[in-house]
Amino acid sequence: MSRNGLLINYGWCTGCHSCEVACRNSHGLPLDQWGIKLTQIGPFKIGEDKTEWNYVPVPTSLCDLCVDRVAEGRKPACVHNCLAQCMEYGPIDELMKKMEEIGEKVNVYLP
Amino acid sequence: MTTKYKVGTEKDYSVRTCAWSAPGCHPTGCGLIMHVKDGKLVEVEGDPDHPVSQGRVCVRCLSLPEVIYHPDRILYPMKRAGKKGENKWERITWDEAYDIIVEKVRYYQENYGLTSIAMMGGTGREATFYFPALSYAVLQTPNNVGVLSGLSCYGPRCAVTEYVLGAGYPEIDYAAYFPDRYDNPEFQLPEYIMIWGKSPLESNADGFFGHAIIDMMKRGTKIIAVDPRVTWLTSRAEYHLQIRPGTDAALALGMLNVIINEDLYDHEFVEKWTFGLDKLAERVQEYPPKKVADICWIKEETLVNAARAFAKAGNSSIQWGVALDMNWNGIQAIQAVLYLMVLTGNIDVPGGNTLAEPSSFMGKWRYETHHQIPEEIYEQRIGNEEFPFFNYGLMACSPDNTLDFFEKQQPYPVKMVWSNSQNPIANAACVPKRWHEAFKKIEFWVSQEIFMTPTVSAYADIVLPVATFAEHEGVVIPHFGRNSAFVGAINQCIERVGECKSDLEICFELGKRLNPKAWPWETVSEFFTEQIKEKTGLTYPELKDKVVQQQKYVYRKYEKGMLRSDGEPGFETLTGLIELKATIFESWGEDPLPYFKEPPFSPYSTPDLYAEYPLVLTTGGRKFTSFHSEHRQIPSLRQITPWPTVEIHPDTASELGIMDGDWVCIENHLGKCRMKALVQPTVHPKVVHALHGWWYPEQDGAEPNLFGTFKSNINMLMPHKKVGNLGLGANYKSNLCKVYKVSGLDD
Q1: What value of ipTM does the predicted structure carry?
Q2: Which residues pair with B319 in a beta bridge?
Q3: Is residue B397, in this structure, part of any structural domain at all?
Q4: Cβ of A49 and B63 within 8 Å?
Q5: CATH number, residue B314
Q6: Could you list the residue range(s) of the whole structural domain that residue B633 is in?
Q7: I need a labelling partner for B86 at 20 to 30 A (CA). Which of B127, B192, B308, B373 fits?
């Protein structure tokens, strides 16, 4: 059985920061630490009427994939609360398959 | 211990509830699971069983424990200990507070009349739901006033819909009425959603769960965005009409021109269910696409293509925002956008714009509370002589006339203000320093808040602590009942911190002292049961157990006689049809057909001013991290949005010698304020966009600083009483300014 990871379908990430705050709350992290951190790419123009603008949440070394929550049968805090529902948790072989199906603007992380 | 909505032990349990306020938010009623340990709310997460929010939740709810246990929260009733504006307070009991208030209310009523008291409340919150009752049925004043110039938020959209369409708020169909949501066979996915002057993802305005847009986009819905800014959402749109701020009415008329002249409208619907197409068709000839494109600073081709795509598409919807209200011809912009929904036949159909039945529940009780005031007194409301439109179905007074009344204390005096969950000198009020001087003339002021604010510090004599939604019982109804897919229970999950009370409890307790006949209920539970039983079949305890009760929806109600009080097919208007010529507007001195009028200060209406202030200023884009002026002291949220910013195009910034992150001054002929520059290619080079509602809770709260409320307040640059003919609509989103670099927030 493969390790678990996080799939982030970042083409749909709206930059709401819910993952950051939910993660910090569930792990009791202080304000200057993040278990997952939102990064921002753009906005910059890639054509007269076209703008590149992506938010990409990136788990940090403080991410334990919510081992305690998962043991209780819950989803990781970031996945659970994500407003755009663009995050998934699971075995990486399954996530890799999904990644290919999604086809663009998608990451799989092993924190 | 365990009930249907509460699971666990005395010391460690979780409660299912729906969110509203305090702290501020709209009645979106997102589902939450509140985890409580040893009596303290320790964690908030989304409730996966909520049919609309489905486990998702934004940072404002996630940080709720930081609000509840914040060291600066107001926890007890207080009376002023120093002079007004010194921000010194003395704790008192609720009985003492009520005794002082009752004595003052009686004194002003007897010596200056019922009109000498004014009620003011903030937008969107539970306060909004209950302050009309506090005004009419507790204080018995007809002066339920506000500060937002032209009442330019939501009210104009509701008023126009009522008179043109005779129905509740036309929200986009997002299958919220159905338990199985988008999979319900009656629902149809909209081909397009046109999002006009709104940031739904961040704002969830008026009860619409914003990320439903994302749900539908994932399923294939395409977006037409009308927004002066490039946003994350417009960057995913098929068409983005990046208009000059304040030209919404022109754009809508130009799109109507294309749809009518190219014969793209829904003949079957328009011929059967509308009145006045010939007149509208004549009017839109004044707005050919080329002319409109020039007015709006967009390409003609984009306008024409977007109009064609929308009209030729299958079922589609339009989500309209506050930017339409925020025009001095907002009434016409709203009317014209509504006609885009109507001409394309997208009213009350699957995947179009849904309409509520006319008898919106709880709205009825709210409305009827004004019968607690003698008719001849109700007619003396502030401003209704100048703007009689406010007498017709708007339970409000003209905010602009309110400033005039307060300043002059004429034609009758206003001695007492009750301010509920609002911070007008930090937000909403144009010319905030004029309001500041006018507010100082008020003899006796009661504030009802969760935090000390510039407004409380400057004027209040008595402060009453408000309970957060985790600390009281309540109900939440999206759109305040005007188009409600569900009713949600607000289940109290913790013991109150300090002695805070809910808005409704304060109404009950003071109402029983001042006007007991209007407050016959013993408990809030009894009151809620009476309000919801007829529509939902549930008692309040039953609703608490269910947490959410969805409503049934019937499409095409106009065919079934469900929109008219006489049960006939059609719409509840004078003609029984949707009025493409709004006949009733004529009797109020307004053009019955939509038109475009340049904003009062613009490159074309005031070219001399434009020479001095060469940038168009738009304001009020929403952030996930605040509700208007609230949440500035919440650590997790302030960290994400630490400072107010003004968005400037890189070319403009470069000409002005401004770098990203520099402090700048934004100034015009009315005033100035300071923000940090956000340099990015998301606005037109001649347009800047500034955030609203900024003050600094960490700064000195006493006069003259008042938590720095005049330092970064963009409304310092907004004019007074530049409103539409009916007194509605004001250009918060289209003014002129210049921007220059400064060394900091304070020099």
Answers
A1: 0.98
A2: B195
A3: yes
A4: no
A5: 3.40.228.10
A6: 607-741
A7: B127
